[in-house]
Amino acid sequence: MSDGTLDAVTLALVQNRLDHITKQMGWVMTRTARSPIFNHAHDFSCYLTDRTGTIVAQADGIPIHTGGGGFAARALIAAFGDTIVEEDAYLLSDPYVAGGNHLPDWVILRPVFCDGTLTAFSCIRAHQSDIGGGAAGTYNPEAEEIFHEGIRLPPLKLVDRGEIREDVWKLLMINCRTPHYLDGDLRAMLGATRIGAEQVAEHLTELGVAQGLAYMDGILDHADKRLRVAIADLPDGTYKGEDRFDNDCFEPMDIPIKAAVTVKGDAMTIDFTGSHEQIRGFKNSSFANTYSSVYMALSAFFDPAIPRNEGTYRNVEIVAPEGTIVNPRPPAPMTMNTVFPACEIIHAVWRALSKADPDRSCAGWGKNAFPITSGLGEDGNTFVMYHWFGSSGGGAVDGRDGFPQQGGLNSLCGLRIPNAESFEQLFPIRFVRQELRRDAAGAGKFRGGAGGDYAVDIFAPVQYAFRGEGYSMPTGFGMDGGGDGAMGSMKVTPEDGDAMIPPTYGVRHIAPSRLEMLAPGGGGWGDPYERDPALVLGDVKDGIVSPEKALAEYGVVLKDGAVDLAATEQRRTNGRT
Amino acid sequence: MTNSDSDGATWRIGVDVGGTFTDLVMIESAGATFVFKAPSVPADPASGVIAALELAAAQFGGAVADILARCELFVHGSTIATNTLIERKGAKVGLLTTEGFRDSLEIRRGWRDDVWAHREPNPPVLVPRHLRLPVRGRVDADGSVFQPLDREDIVGIRTAFEREGVESVAICLFNSFANARHEQTCAEELREHWDWVSVSHEIAPVIGEYERSSTAVVNAYVAPRTATYLQNLNERLAGLGLLRPILLTQNNGGVIPLERIVARPVSLLLSGPAAGVGALAFYRQAIGSDNLISMEIGGTSCDALLMHRGDVAVSDEIKIEGYPLALPSVDIHTIGAGGGTIAGVDSAGLLFVGPRGAGANPGPACYGLGGTAPTVTDALLVLGRLKPGPYAGGAVSLDEDKAKTAVLEKVGRPLGIDLDAAASGIIRLLEQNLLHALQQISIQRGYDPREFTLVAAGGAGPMHGASVGRMLGCRAVYIPRLSGVFCALGMLHTDLRLDFVRTRYGRLDEVPAPELETIFAELEAEATAQLEASGAPEIDCTREIDLRYTGQSWDVRIPLDSLDKSEIRQRFEAEYDRLFGHIQPDGVLEMTALRVVGTGRLPRAAAAQADRSDGAPTPVEWRSVFLTEGRAEIDVYDGADLRPGQHIAGPALIAEHTTTVMVGPGDRLEVDGANNFMIHLGDA
Q1: Which of A435, A544, A558 to mutate to test the interface with B (most CBs of B within 10 A)?
Q2: Residue A207 resides in a domain
Q3: Nearest residue, CB atoms, B103 vs list A63, A421, A435
Q4: Is 60 exceeded by the pLDDT of residue B6?
Q5: Distances (CA, A) of B485 to A149, B79, B105, B131
Q6: Confidence of residue B582 (pLDDT cuts 50, 70, 90)
Q7: Nearest residue of B to residue A24 by CA position?
Q8: Are residues A452 and A547 in the same domain?
Q9: Same domain, A24 and A69
Q10: How far is CA A353 from CA A319, A346, B684, in A?
Q11: What is the domain range of residue A449?
């Protein structure tokens, strides 16, 4: 192997093994973490980097964490460099100085040494249950500075040659509202990164350290080549796309995010110049989160079999001007960024890419806007309830309709909506309905997801935290001739008062009440006139599309519960009137 | 083996109908075992069963009736329900549901298993929305009735279903796990008009409207076709002289008489692989260990099972073809890795193996049925580990040249490596995938695989057992001679099993022990009555409880032999600690469900005795085989020559009737007292 050539079979085996090691780290994490957010909701990602901090394997992770972890490893190397020794472990979170994506995601990094040589880092990025700051549970919708969002962690040495630094540990515990969770979760992260580090060291030693390092390079080279092949298939040119917020968390405002994608041969540049300047509320995106969102957009756009290590994106350049919403200056707040503007960044990149390759284009996913309520239950304990049942519809692509309800574009349907029956056992509520909306799905050859029609009676006075998009403009945009999904609406009717329209962002205290919402619909793909009339008839029978819309948007003439094929053909040929 | 068709002998017969073959295993009362394989007949699976019986009758020189007349146990595992679902050949189903909640089937809790494959549509909804019709009437979370059931709605729905030509009805009402009266009323009304009415609380009385509806709907979808087939098979067998009704293997690994399953064939969706539990229960005595991991490898997939202290975990969260079922089911981990798994090189020059397979047709390139993609079987043939010519009991013939061409052109040339390197690369990557699957079923569930014996089964398992076992850190790998009919054999070593569950939410310390006792006693009475009616001679009930710390949304199930609250807590904490590595000393325990597992023990056949031999076995040939580094001439034995007590030092190959065993360099194979193979792994 000294001549630099790698054995093709061994390369496949090493990649498969390193991916599997990250999965095993995830199992250990799931089995040992304390708080439900990890051992049930799986809000964490395990990854391995090479010695330069470039992600080599990340088979266990949530889509929006794709590729962001390398920034953390490189920040650690920049801060500690040659002083990193065996049996150390490090912690960081800050998006401004430590390569973090947002403050609640803490990263544990553990160096992997073989025969005294630094070869890799074994890492976990995980969303903590609480990190102090202005609101319990890490999301403070009223934050105007990052200081309102929780404790900021620069690269810290948490374990010094095998010994936990008790002073640092105590500093962390006293800055957290749920130290019993934090203590257990940090130990779980340390344990899982240790398992990862041991297995990587064992594997590299088996290969021989020099060869092992060469194979890690080979894994990155292979991924790089896969994406280059995919990019080279696109015509050269510059393609533009944008998405927007209609508020800055405090007041209505038009806030565009603009992406210009330039394809030249097998290279790609994504330039956010022209995007809005950073905003007052917590929807700014850190550098790492912007990169991660772009990576997620690309991985979802191209073939899912392309690896998702950082070699994949080696030939992708990202320009994110400082001081904008995609790369703010301190102390802009940003905790919401893994949801918003991650969604807007992905949408903007998708819209640009759709012009380069319309066949692969993805319609917009309706943005989620359901609130969170909290209050005191009958037992005197505080309860917190996420209204997942009001989730929005997903966007269509060529070959399938949008998913009917989804927990967020940033997870690509990796979040499970609870059963309503389970929530009735836990909270002082009674569900009225959780069904699909009518005439809300964006029309298209493949239509958007319908989105939820949701209502619930809440029997206790509660605090509502509102945080969402999609109530004053459509968010699930159509593609390639497809229509936009309908926008959402929400109202709260207290038992002793009149119905009120809640704010898009902010906190309100409301008496026992009925919450009703229509979630935004997803965008359609392709000309609705090309949709199979039988599918349109099915949607009409199913009550997802009204007969009027079937005629107006799809050009399908129905008669006596069946498609009038001749009349439909005629209407579709004559065009829209 | 001797002809056992002597006076007074009785038969136990297990039949596993797979996609390609119908496997028949017959055990005679003294323990002699016979195996027959007939081609499956997908259009009429019963004909495949009869054909296999005719093969047996021909060998014994009698008629099928002679065999059936002396059959004391006929156990059947069938893929009919699974195929009905896969091929979308089920009934037209109508779902009656609660007003406001008709879409849970379609929303699917917003979840997708493979998030990155977002261009793939969700599996089709089995009941379109216009046949999911709402009825007014609402049960609250505590089981009280908030809004009475509207009977006129039921009549309206009945009319609509009739107009639409609905063949099979499912009923799932909101909170019916807490109070089933509304569901019962609907069922009474609809049963007057339909033969097939699947009621959620009868099939899966658990919390969770999505999984409960899905279970009821899948049942309604597969029931008419499955039940018709099973009843037809039973009648044909009875007509041929079978005295007792057939038994079926269920998802939970136990068996059940036909008449108790016809109304709920959804419990047969894992009918084949779940029988692996019976096989492990049988072999554990010979192996002398209660800690076993099995990998059963066939043409397209590998099913892994884990037995710990004699038990195989049963959970009620399974998914078949993307449809969740809330039914007690054996915890099986399946990956796409088998003899027909396809290898190739991606657009940037990286080798891959699977998960796609070539299926039975065209199958591997070496089958000569038109396949050109190289598969695992092709690679084994190139390496000399399989022999050209008749294969799988003569069902196909392997063509070495076709295998070489496929491996060289699709893998060797693109990677710039020679034929042997390409073929061995395919096998190494496949075995790494097998290793990862076994690590998942052990490490992910909190077990250390090094403390287990690996059981390698299926037609393709014994080829990879030693290699994968070594990587897994096991000391030994057990290989049943009847590997190729692992599940059919397992069917003859299972008991009747019925699972009962009652959902009951509450703080453990606040629910009075007498109430627990009452619920358990009711469930046990039901289990006992049903098992007695099934003719079980010996009945045993075990109690289980689902517990969690308050605020959590998943449960840990523990067995219960006392209602002492502090003892329950101790058992919970021990299991929780094993699974998650910590406990919450002050955590409040909440119960969610009580369960009773009823077991009706069936008599066991005696194990056959084979003559021992101390002599050294003689190879039948020497073959050039590619091992890890290069080729060597290695010994090949005919399995039929090997006797208990004999040993073989690796490297070696053992050719059995339906499988080939690979013994690695440094390994030592021993024929054990039960006449199977134990490979003691060397360090190499």
Answers
A1: A435
A2: yes
A3: A435
A4: no
A5: 61, 15, 37, 42
A6: confident
A7: B444
A8: no
A9: yes
A10: 16, 10, 52
A11: 362-527
pLDDT at position B1 is 35
Distance from B639 to chain A by nearest Cα, in Å?
33
Q: Residues 326-355, chain A: which have Cβ within 8 Å of B?
A: none
Q: pLDDT class for B610, splitting at 50, 70, 90?
A: confident
Tell me whether residue A436 is in a domain: yes
Inside any domain, residue A249: no
The pLDDT, as a whole number, for residue A407 is: 87
What residues does B662 pair with on adjacent strands?
B653
Strands B292-297 vs B453-457: parallel, antiparallel or unpaired: parallel
Q: Which of A318-327, A359-368, B583-592 has the lowest mean pLDDT?
A: B583-592
All residues of chain B having their beta carbon less than 8 Å from the beta carbon of residue A422 are: 207-208, 553
What are the backbone dihedrals phi and psi of residue B668, each rounded to the nearest 5 degrees, phi first? -130, 120
Tell me the C-alpha distance between B551 and B530, whole Å: 37
Residues paired with residue A457 on neighbouring β-strands, in sequence order = A430, A514
Mean pLDDT of chain A: 93
| pLDDT digit string, tens, across residues A277-294 | 999 999 999 999 999 999
Q: Residues A58, A156: one domain?
A: yes
Q: Which residue ranges form the domains of chain B, and what is each CATH number?
A: 11-85+227-268 (3.30.420.40), 88-223 (3.40.50), 496-601 (3.30.1490), 621-680 (no CATH)
CB contact under 8 A, B175 and A421: yes
How many Å lie between the alpha carbon of B678 and the closest alpha carbon of chain A?
28
Query: Phi/psi of residue A489, each to 5°?
Result: -155, 160
Q: Is residue A318 part of a domain?
A: no
Same domain, A401 and A431: yes
Residues of A in contact with B549 (CB under 8 A): none
Q: How wide is the angle at C-alpha B467 spanned by C-alphas B465 and B468, nearest 5°?
A: 65
φ, ψ at B152 (rounded to 5°): -65, -35
Task: Report residue A251 as tokens.
Answer: 């007041």
For residue A352, pLDDT over 50 is answered with yes
The model's confidence at residue A1, banded by pLDDT at 50, 70 and 90, is: very low
Taking CB atoms and an 8 Å limit, are B116 and A412 in contact across chains? Answer: yes
Using the beta-carbon criterion (under 8 Å), do A9 and B141 form an inter-chain contact?
Answer: no
Query: Which of A379-383, B186-190, B257-261, B447-451 comes out lowest in average pLDDT?
Result: A379-383
Assembly ipTM:
0.94
Same domain, A412 and A497: yes
A402 touches chain B (CB under 8 A): no
Give B561 to chain A, closest Cα distance, Å: 26
Query: What tens digit of pLDDT does each residue of B443-494 get?
Result: 988 899 999 999 999 989 999 999 999 999 999 999 999 998 899 899 998 8
Domain boundary among A176, A196, A226: A226
Residues A565 and A491 in one domain: no
For range B528-535, the mean pLDDT: 89
Q: Which among A430, A433, A544 has CB closest to B140?
A: A430
Do B313 and B445 contact (CB within 8 A), yes or no?
A: yes
Q: Which of B98, B99, B102, B119 to mutate to test the interface with A (most CBs of A within 10 A)?
A: B119
Q: Do B118 and A300 touch (CB under 8 A)?
A: yes
Which residue, among A15, A385, A421, would best test binding to B if mutated, counting the most B CBs under 10 Å from its CB? A421
Select from B112, B115, B118, B553 the residue whose CB has the most chain A CBs within 10 Å, as the one to mutate to test that interface: B118
Quick check: A209 pLDDT over 60?
A: yes
pLDDT score of A563: 97
- A398 and A486 housed in the same domain: yes
SS3 content of chain A, % helix, strand, coil (to 5): 35, 25, 40
Same domain, A496 and A562: no
Mean pLDDT of chain B: 92
**Which of A176, A194, A226 lies at the terminal end of a domain, its last residue?**
A226
- Strand, helix or coil for residue B101: coil
Query: For chain A, what is the domain count?
Result: 3
What is the value of pTM for the model shown?
0.93
> Which chain A residue is nearest to residue B414, measuring alpha carbons?
A8
* A254 Cβ neighbours under 8 A, 6+ residues apart: A244, A245, A246
